[in-house]
Amino acid sequence: MKKLTVKKDAQCMACLDCVRACSEAFYKEFDPAKACLDVVERNGVVKPMVCIQCGKCAKVCEAGAITQNPKGVYMINKKLCTGCGKCVEACPFGIMVKTADDAPTSKCIACGICAKACPMGVLEVVEQ
Prior knowledge:
4 helices, globular
């Protein structure tokens, strides 16, 4: 299974380069709300929140637009997506992107763009 992970004991400096890379790659603008990951601070620790490919989004998709590819990554078929937003509500990490009422949703596809942009090497795409 291929997925994006946060390296253990890596120190995130909250520069948002990963967020910028993701939103610019897929939406051609820097907008944290349009990135398929987030940088959060909890109990004084800053770390990226990434999709763990749990499949909860696929389970609630009534249109069958979210399926798992052979590498284990859940992908959204934009042609089948109705834009209902149920997958966004089901995401336990709140990192699926919904830009407009009728627009298809976006999610992490473990492409690694964010990992390449991280100056601290906090993110990596791994095969499990």
